[in-house]
Amino acid sequence: MTNEERQNKLDKLINVELTKQYVEAMRNTTRAVEEFHLMAILNIVSSMMMRRVYMQQGTSFIYSNLYSLVVAPSSRAKKSTATDNYVYWIERLGLAKYLLGDIMTIEGLGAFMMDGDEDEDGTCNKQKGVAFVHYDEFGSLLATVKKKYANGILDDLNQIYSCGRLTKSFKTTPIRVDETFMNIIGATQLHSLEKYTDEFALLSGFFPRFLICYETHINSHIANRPEPLSEQFNYVKDVLDMIKQHIHDIGERNARKLYLDNEASELFERWSFRNDEKAANEPNFIQTMMGRTDTLFFKIAMVLHIMQEQFDNDYISKDTAFKSMCIVNWHISNYKKLIIGTDDTQGLAFDENKRKYNDLYDLIKSKKKLTRSDIKRQKGWDYRTIDEIMHSLWQSYIIDRELGPRDGHIYEYIPKEQRDIRREQENREGEEGE
User: Fold this and answer.
1) Distance between CA atoms of 170 and 40, rounded to whole angstroms?
2) Whole-prediction pTM value?
3) Per-residue pLDDT tens for 286-301?
4) What CATH architecture applies to the domain 352-433?
């Protein structure tokens, strides 16, 4: 993609003055691509809105909370730097009391949400049921949900996404939060998703609830200043402070209901994938995601409406609806690219061999030493499959092998630091040979 094509795509996504100024202000702090900053500012404004602005679809109430994930190569893409700016602004706006660094158990999350603070005059200064979660490495959450003590946490997070009631019975502390609101923003790389994401996370609706930004492009822009001190920064600060004040004036018990105006409603009906035959022909992983795009559209439309300072207007315009559609269409493209891949990009590729590779990697890492017979007994795979996968692990310096009884191999796991030494040694030997 040329720079001109990237800029045209970006203009469609961020054609809101606050977003443009935010991207311009924060681009001097990191090499991250502009789309990462888009994810951050959407989450910042969404977090400020809490349960004070909503829409209704049928009998369902939709709030502005977002689950968002940035996927990009490690280190070079600066994805975590961009999402860290979300934390910076949440703290700057006086909302740090809602920040939760990690979700280990639903019991811990529920206890955090039940905690509400009051000032001396009895005024509540921490709204119950609210949590903002930021992950430098989203894979840690995916790894957590596989633990026995975290059983069922995906279903609970799915429920919280709808801002519904969280009720759990524990022996020590029963959890009951009637009104929830949680934002999750995280960053990860493709390898972590390959390792921890399975069909259940995709088909249960957990992963399809996330607004996805999948970027393989590395920004060549070099940040010259360590601090975002610029005219754009001051503009962003002033606008966010103003939005916070207007949202605060709405009040917790006087939430504002928004509607699509007639033109926006007609545009939405033509765009919606609810009755789209093309969606029915997509793989199950994609169908599950596309079934949730209507809700995502409403969430983003509300955020954009507030970002444009439409505080006294209860009707979302056609222009705002179109901008929301552009972002959701971009998300759909990212999601497909991430799951299926393209000619130029690698997808998660949930095929049998990929799954077996990950299973065998985890097995040998836990056992340290294994024979082919051990693997066959535990996994039931044929020897040809075992040999092919173990050869790939051996070529990657993840395992070592030595000749065992009856001309079989004994495979031994190699710790990472030893792998690096072996690679350097072989590289030196190769250079000396030349």
Assistant:
1) 35
2) 0.75
3) 777 888 899 999 999 9
4) Orthogonal Bundle (1.10)
